[in-house]
Design brief:
By secondary structure, this protein is of the alpha/beta class. It is built from 25 helices and 11 strands.
Length: about 675
């Protein structure tokens, strides 16, 4: 059987590796290549081709050993990866907040267990903002390969011993099943499609199929055309794909088939000779170590400066190349050819020992909560502004949580809201405690505190569920007979959609996902959304009035144009001189342009039983008419949520004024 493999070195494959890693690195550095992430798919094809070639050659020579195969993988993958992870943990100890350091440790544990790809499916996805803070995010691809090579050699050996001529059929069938699964999941569950082996296996299997094709012995003019097409299929997605591209599924066909064509046509074509260019080959040789180190550098740099300037990006590129070369020269090469891992036994013992040791270290970091004691008390206080989100007052099922003064007496007030209500809760709690007012908080992130409404993008079933949940809350409120219900919500987004800062890089349809309706309107206008909100507030206020319960609507706090304010403030304090955060952001005119229509709508709901609180004047620095987002502490967590410090600074005075009319405990 003539396998398409040779024992001689093929420099054009290292050149192809170089193009792949360059695409990935420049994508992560945002230096062009918006679709450079497809470089990983090219890596998968190369890996499948080379490893299958080795397997078949050894099986053909009757010298294959499963233990030796895994020992070889340990020599190739583990030492450089272990050094990188240890390095990331050391750097993270200096740069990261306790929460992020604990997250880094958890991802290190997942990496050790060869399950990084599974671990990262718990978040929003590879392209989500949260993923930009995961230094080990890129290890998902290593886990895919490791999982593949635990299973793949067993299947190859099984088929080889019984019917070697059916290998192509087995590989093709498995690849088609995997590709079909990827196509289905990229629509229904994009995270699974991106990270998990069943949706990525076909890419490795395409390389495996290449390795069992009859070896080309004759070159033809057509090879030049096929090689040219292959290069176009690899490069074009790097320029024309982006974070919004549905991927992998059919989107991965171009880079995968392009890589296959370049490997199949070999190094004798003009494209093959170009790929064999010495500079590209040298980058290809260090591609694994370069891939390992570039992403942690990017993440840690963002810890320091939040947004990377061109100077930072170029510096990170140079640092990544230097680290990649150093790792290749002093870790990869000695591990492959040195005495330390020369035998199968040594390699496997090293792999097991290093994995256990690293897992224990990472577990201790996780168990400690990221070792918060390594940071001074002042920084730990500022960190709380980043991490706090009012969780002690919230409930995913909108259940009643205690707030304010607590005794066996009746409930005096209710705080009902979404995440904005949770942000306001510390101020409400402090004032209510001082006034000895007992309260219940019904706070559920992302659930507007008004009956009869749902989000425009919801299905009928989801809409009915939200309506039922809020009806249950209202029934409980009426049953508890408070004197007043305070509504705190993100009203502007419910009528206008997300602001421009949140829409950057997002599809236009996202704007409607936060707008409220009381009929099935997929893309409501401001008039339709605001009318629905007004109707339902009026109806709810009337229902509460029947029971003598006053409704107090709190106008939304002003939105800032500065996202991740608390994180930026922390970086400025922690790494003095690396970043500056403007203390004053949105102007009063900008604030009114964005929020005036919704504020007017709510103000118009005022009746004898419905009051409206507007504390917005407290937020603007009088001499400048600009929103002040920090002083000694950050007042905003992001562009629209207050920190605890911000709630106490801006909202406590307002709630003192408007809760003072509720009778105190002594006079009841």
């Amino acid at each position: 059987m003539g396998w398409m493999m040779t024992k001689h070195y093929r420099p054009e494959i290292d050149g192809l590796r170089a193009i792949s890693v360059i695409g990935v690195v420049l994508f992560h550095l945002e230096l062009g290549f918006p679709g450079g992430f497809v470089g990983v798919d090219v890596f998968f094809v190369i890996s499948g081709y080379l490893i299958t070639g080795i397997l078949l050659r050894q099986l053909g020579e009757d010298r294959f050993s499963l233990m030796e195969f895994w020992a070889r993988r340990v020599r190739r993958i583990v030492p450089a990866a272990i050094v990188m992870v240890v390095g990331a943990l050391l750097i993270g100890a200096f740069l990261q907040t306790p929460e992020r350091y604990a997250s880094l440790a958890r991802s290190a544990m997942a990496h050790v267990l060869m399950a990084s790809n599974c671990y990262f499916t718990r978040d929003q996805g590879y392209f989500a903002e949260k993923s930009d803070h995961e230094p080990l995010l890129h290890t998902w691809s290593l886990s895919v390969e490791e999982q593949f090579y635990l299973i793949f050699p067993l299947i190859v050996c099984f088929v080889w011993k019984r019917a070697p001529q059916r290998l192509a059929l087995v590989f093709t069938s498995a690849a088609l099943i995997s590709f079909s699964w990827s196509w289905i999941e990229v629509v229904s569950n994009p995270k699974w499609a991106f990270f998990l082996l069943p949706a990525r296996g076909w890419e490795l299997l395409v390389g495996a199929l290449l390795a069992i094709l009859p070896q080309k012995t004759m070159r033809s003019l057509g090879d030049e055309a096929w090689a040219g097409l292959g290069l176009v299929l690899v490069l074009a997605p790097m320029f024309f794909f982006d974070r919004q591209t549905a991927f992998p599924g059919p989107g991965a066909l171009a880079p995968v088939l392009g890589a296959a064509l370049l490997i199949w046509t070999g190094g004798s074509t003009k494209i093959g000779k170009l790929l064999g260019w010495r500079a590209l080959v040298r980058i290809g040789l260090i591609s694994y170590s370069l891939y390992l180190w570039h992403w942690p550098f990017v993440v840690f740099a963002r810890e320091m400066v939040i947004e990377l300037t061109l100077t930072w990006k170029i510096s990170l590129l140079v640092a990544s190349l230097l680290a990649g070369y150093s790792s290749w020269r002093w870790v990869e090469m000695p591990s492959r050819s040195g005495l330390l891992l020369a035998t199968r036994r040594r390699s496997l013992i090293f792999g097991l020992t290093s994995a256990v040791t690293l897992f224990v270290i990472a577990f201790s970091i996780k168990a400690s909560g990221g070792f918060p004691s390594r940071l001074p008390a002042e920084l730990r206080l500022i960190i709380s502004d980043i991490t706090w989100n009012g969780a002690e007052y919230t409930s995913a099922k909108s259940e009643a949580m205690p707030i304010g003064f607590q005794d066996d007496g009746p409930v005096d007030f209710v705080l009902w809201g979404d995440s904005h209500g949770a942000s306001a809760a510390p101020a409400v709690n402090a004032v209510a405690t001082d006034f000895k007012l007992k309260g219940h908080a019904y706070l559920n992130n992302g659930t507007p505190p008004v009956t009869g409404l749902w989000f425009a993008d919801m299905s009928e079933a989801s809409a009915a569920e939200m309506v039922a949940l809020n009806e249950r809350v209202l029934a409980e409120i009426i049953d508890s007979k408070p004197m007043a219900v305070f509504l705190v919500g993100r009203w502007v987004a419910r009528c206008e959609g997300y602001n421009e800062a949140e829409m950057v890089g997002e599809p236009g349809s996202l704007r409607f996902t936060t707008m409220l309706v009381d009929s099935m309107i997929p893309e409501p206008t401001f008039k339709e959304a605001s009318s629905a909100l007004a109707r339902q507030i009026k109806a709810m206020g009337a229902r509460l009035a029947v029971h003598g319960i006053k409704l107090v609507i709190f106008q939304q706090v002003p939105e800032s144009n500065e996202s991740r304010t608390a994180s930026r403030f922390y970086s400025m304090k922690r790494f003095s001189g690396t970043s500056k955060v403007p203390q004053f952001t949105t102007t009063k005119d900008e604030f009114l342009k964005r929020q005036k229509r919704t504020m007017k709508l709510l103000k118009n709901q005022t009746t004898e039983n419905v009051r409206v609180i507007d504390a917005s004047s407290q937020f603007f620095f009088r001499d400048r008419d600009q929103l002040k987002v920090y002083a000694e502490r950050a007042y905003y967590r992001d562009e629209d949520h207050l920190t605890r410090a911000g709630a106490m600074h801006y909202l406590e005075p307002a709630f003192k004024k408007f809760m003072s009319w509720i009778p105190r405990e002594e006079s009841k």
